[in-house]
Protein backbone atom coordinates (compact mmCIF):
# COMPACT_ATOMS: atom_id res chain seq x y z
CA UNK A 1 0.00 0.00 0.00
CA UNK A 2 2.86 2.39 0.78
CA UNK A 3 4.40 1.64 -2.59
CA UNK A 4 1.11 2.29 -4.37
CA UNK A 5 0.71 5.55 -2.41
CA UNK A 6 4.33 6.45 -3.33
CA UNK A 7 5.10 7.62 0.20
CA UNK A 8 7.86 7.02 2.63
CA UNK A 9 7.03 5.48 5.98
CA UNK A 10 7.37 8.89 7.63
CA UNK A 11 5.14 10.58 5.01
CA UNK A 12 2.44 7.93 5.19
CA UNK A 13 2.44 7.94 8.98
CA UNK A 14 1.99 11.73 9.01
CA UNK A 15 -0.85 11.77 6.47
CA UNK A 16 -2.67 8.81 8.06
CA UNK A 17 -2.31 10.17 11.58
CA UNK A 18 -0.33 7.17 12.81
CA UNK A 19 3.01 7.26 14.60
CA UNK A 20 5.93 6.14 12.49
CA UNK A 21 6.86 3.60 15.17
CA UNK A 22 3.41 1.92 15.09
CA UNK A 23 3.35 1.92 11.31
CA UNK A 24 6.80 0.35 11.24
CA UNK A 25 5.77 -2.39 13.68
CA UNK A 26 2.64 -3.09 11.64
CA UNK A 27 4.66 -3.40 8.43
CA UNK A 28 7.07 -5.76 10.18
CA UNK A 29 4.20 -7.90 11.49
CA UNK A 30 4.94 -7.08 15.11
CA UNK A 31 1.91 -4.88 15.77
CA UNK A 32 -1.56 -3.96 14.54
CA UNK A 33 -3.30 -0.82 13.39
CA UNK A 34 -6.85 0.21 14.27
CA UNK A 35 -9.43 -0.44 11.60
CA UNK A 36 -9.95 3.29 11.03
CA UNK A 37 -6.21 3.87 10.66
CA UNK A 38 -5.84 0.94 8.30
CA UNK A 39 -8.82 2.16 6.25
CA UNK A 40 -7.24 5.62 5.84
CA UNK A 41 -3.99 4.06 4.61
CA UNK A 42 -5.94 1.86 2.18
CA UNK A 43 -7.72 4.87 0.69
CA UNK A 44 -4.42 6.75 0.34
CA UNK A 45 -3.25 3.86 -1.86
CA UNK A 46 -6.50 4.25 -3.88
CA UNK A 47 -7.71 0.85 -2.68
CA UNK A 48 -10.78 -0.20 -0.68
CA UNK A 49 -11.51 -2.80 1.96
CA UNK A 50 -14.02 -5.52 1.10
CA UNK A 51 -15.33 -8.68 2.72
CA UNK A 52 -15.48 -11.89 0.69
CA UNK A 53 -17.64 -14.94 1.28
CA UNK A 54 -16.43 -18.54 1.07
CA UNK A 55 -16.82 -18.48 -2.73
CA UNK A 56 -14.78 -15.29 -3.08
CA UNK A 57 -17.75 -13.04 -3.84
CA UNK A 58 -17.85 -9.57 -2.35
CA UNK A 59 -20.34 -9.16 0.50
CA UNK A 60 -22.17 -5.85 0.22
CA UNK A 61 -23.25 -3.90 3.31
CA UNK A 62 -26.91 -3.90 4.29
CA UNK A 63 -28.97 -1.38 2.31
CA UNK A 64 -29.66 1.97 4.00
CA UNK A 65 -33.11 1.93 2.36
CA UNK A 66 -34.42 -1.07 4.28
CA UNK A 67 -37.64 -0.81 6.28
CA UNK A 68 -37.62 0.56 9.83
CA UNK A 69 -39.87 0.27 12.82
CA UNK A 70 -42.46 2.87 13.78
CA UNK A 71 -39.83 4.77 15.75
CA UNK A 72 -37.63 5.09 12.64
CA UNK A 73 -35.07 2.61 14.01
CA UNK A 74 -33.44 -0.14 12.02
CA UNK A 75 -34.55 -3.68 12.80
CA UNK A 76 -31.97 -5.97 14.45
CA UNK A 77 -29.52 -6.96 11.74
CA UNK A 78 -29.41 -10.66 12.67
CA UNK A 79 -33.21 -11.03 12.52
CA UNK A 80 -35.39 -11.30 9.41
CA UNK A 81 -38.05 -8.71 8.65
CA UNK A 82 -41.46 -9.88 7.47
CA UNK A 83 -44.85 -8.36 6.72
CA UNK A 84 -46.87 -7.51 9.80
CA UNK A 85 -49.86 -9.58 8.69
CA UNK A 86 -47.79 -12.77 8.70
CA UNK A 87 -48.38 -14.03 12.23
CA UNK A 88 -48.45 -10.77 14.20
CA UNK A 89 -47.07 -11.70 17.63
CA UNK A 90 -48.51 -8.89 19.79
CA UNK A 91 -50.62 -11.37 21.80
CA UNK A 92 -53.63 -10.69 24.03
CA UNK A 93 -51.62 -8.51 26.40
CA UNK A 94 -51.18 -6.02 23.54
CA UNK A 95 -54.56 -6.37 21.90
CA UNK A 96 -54.84 -2.60 21.35
CA UNK A 97 -51.75 -2.49 19.18
CA UNK A 98 -52.41 -2.68 15.47
CA UNK A 99 -49.96 -4.73 13.41
CA UNK A 100 -47.23 -2.69 11.68
CA UNK A 101 -46.40 -3.00 7.99
CA UNK A 102 -43.21 -4.88 8.93
CA UNK A 103 -42.04 -6.77 12.00
CA UNK A 104 -39.67 -9.64 12.85
CA UNK A 105 -39.64 -12.95 14.70
CA UNK A 106 -38.50 -12.59 18.29
CA UNK A 107 -38.36 -16.34 18.85
CA UNK A 108 -35.28 -17.81 17.21
CA UNK A 109 -37.14 -21.09 16.63
CA UNK A 110 -39.78 -19.25 14.58
CA UNK A 111 -37.07 -17.47 12.63
CA UNK A 112 -35.18 -20.71 11.97
CA UNK A 113 -38.41 -22.40 10.90
CA UNK A 114 -39.10 -19.67 8.34
CA UNK A 115 -35.51 -19.80 7.13
CA UNK A 116 -35.72 -23.56 6.62
CA UNK A 117 -38.79 -22.98 4.40
CA UNK A 118 -37.71 -19.85 2.50
CA UNK A 119 -33.96 -19.63 2.97
CA UNK A 120 -32.06 -16.74 4.52
CA UNK A 121 -32.63 -13.40 2.81
CA UNK A 122 -29.56 -11.33 1.92
CA UNK A 123 -31.04 -8.21 3.50
CA UNK A 124 -34.08 -6.80 5.21
CA UNK A 125 -37.13 -5.80 3.18
CA UNK A 126 -37.16 -2.57 1.20
CA UNK A 127 -40.45 -0.67 0.86
CA UNK A 128 -42.20 -1.50 -2.42
CA UNK A 129 -45.61 -0.56 -3.83
CA UNK A 130 -48.31 -2.77 -2.33
CA UNK A 131 -46.49 -3.35 0.97
CA UNK A 132 -49.04 -1.67 3.23
CA UNK A 133 -51.34 -3.99 5.15
CA UNK A 134 -54.42 -2.49 3.44
CA UNK A 135 -52.95 -3.09 -0.03
CA UNK A 136 -51.94 -6.64 0.87
CA UNK A 137 -55.45 -7.36 2.21
CA UNK A 138 -56.99 -5.99 -1.01
CA UNK A 139 -54.61 -8.11 -3.11
CA UNK A 140 -55.57 -11.24 -1.17
CA UNK A 141 -59.26 -10.43 -1.65
CA UNK A 142 -58.90 -9.96 -5.40
CA UNK A 143 -56.80 -13.13 -5.68
CA UNK A 144 -59.57 -15.07 -3.90
CA UNK A 145 -62.19 -13.60 -6.23
CA UNK A 146 -60.05 -14.49 -9.24
CA UNK A 147 -59.66 -18.07 -8.05
CA UNK A 148 -63.42 -18.27 -7.46
CA UNK A 149 -64.10 -17.02 -10.98
CA UNK A 150 -61.60 -19.46 -12.46
CA UNK A 151 -63.33 -22.32 -10.65
CA UNK A 152 -66.73 -21.20 -11.99
CA UNK A 153 -65.37 -20.91 -15.52
CA UNK A 154 -63.77 -24.35 -15.30
CA UNK A 155 -67.04 -25.84 -14.09
CA UNK A 156 -68.97 -24.14 -16.90
CA UNK A 157 -66.48 -25.37 -19.53
CA UNK A 158 -66.84 -28.90 -18.17
CA UNK A 159 -70.63 -28.65 -18.36
CA UNK A 160 -70.46 -27.26 -21.91
CA UNK A 161 -68.14 -30.07 -22.97
CA UNK A 162 -70.60 -32.57 -21.52
CA UNK A 163 -73.54 -30.84 -23.27
CA UNK A 164 -75.15 -30.12 -19.92
CA UNK A 165 -75.76 -26.37 -20.08
CA UNK A 166 -79.54 -26.73 -19.87
CA UNK A 167 -81.93 -23.80 -19.62
CA UNK A 168 -82.72 -21.35 -16.88
CA UNK A 169 -82.91 -22.70 -13.37
CA UNK A 170 -85.83 -20.73 -12.00
CA UNK A 171 -85.61 -22.40 -8.62
CA UNK A 172 -82.03 -21.62 -7.63
CA UNK A 173 -81.01 -18.75 -9.88
CA UNK A 174 -79.66 -18.18 -13.33
CA UNK A 175 -77.29 -20.36 -15.33
CA UNK A 176 -75.37 -17.49 -16.94
CA UNK A 177 -71.94 -18.52 -18.26
CA UNK A 178 -68.82 -16.39 -17.76
CA UNK A 179 -69.10 -13.17 -19.72
CA UNK A 180 -72.47 -12.11 -18.34
CA UNK A 181 -71.13 -10.73 -15.07
CA UNK A 182 -69.91 -7.19 -14.56
CA UNK A 183 -66.42 -6.68 -15.93
CA UNK A 184 -64.91 -3.22 -16.08
CA UNK A 185 -64.07 -2.23 -19.63
CA UNK A 186 -65.75 -5.22 -21.29
CA UNK A 187 -69.25 -5.79 -19.91
CA UNK A 188 -70.12 -2.64 -18.02
CA UNK A 189 -73.66 -2.61 -19.47
CA UNK A 190 -74.33 -6.08 -18.00
CA UNK A 191 -75.28 -7.64 -21.31
CA UNK A 192 -75.41 -11.41 -21.80
CA UNK A 193 -72.70 -13.46 -23.42
CA UNK A 194 -73.61 -14.78 -26.89
CA UNK A 195 -73.70 -18.40 -25.64
CA UNK A 196 -75.93 -17.59 -22.65
CA UNK A 197 -79.03 -19.80 -22.52
CA UNK A 198 -80.44 -18.03 -19.49
CA UNK A 199 -81.18 -14.48 -20.60
CA UNK A 200 -82.14 -13.44 -17.10
CA UNK A 201 -82.35 -9.84 -16.01
CA UNK A 202 -78.74 -9.41 -15.00
CA UNK A 203 -79.25 -5.70 -14.44
SSE blueprint and pairings:
Elements: H1 2-5, H2 9-16, H3 20-27, H4 35-44, E1 81-83, E2 102-104, H5 108-118, H6 133-161
Antiparallel strand pairs: 1-2
Task: Offer a quick outline of the entry.
By secondary structure, the chain is an all-alpha fold. Helices cover 34% and strands 3% of the residues. The chain has helices spanning 2-5, 9-16, 20-27, 35-44, 108-118, 133-161, and strands at 81-83, 102-104.
How many beta strands in the DSSP annotation?
Answer: 2
Q: From the helix content, strand content and strand pairing, which structural class follows?
A: mainly alpha
Strand order of the largest sheet: 1-2
Task: Provide mean pLDDT, rounded.
Answer: 82
Contiguous low-pLDDT stretches (5 residues minimum) are 167-172
Rg is 32 Å
How far apart, in Å, are the first and last alpha carbons?
81 Å
| Number of alpha- plus pi-helical segments | 6
Strand content: under 5%
- Tell me about the largest β-sheet: 2 strands, antiparallel
Query: What percent of residues adopt helix (DSSP H or I)?
Result: 25-40%
- H-E order: HHHHEEHH
What would the principal axes of the Cα set say about the shape?
Answer: elongated
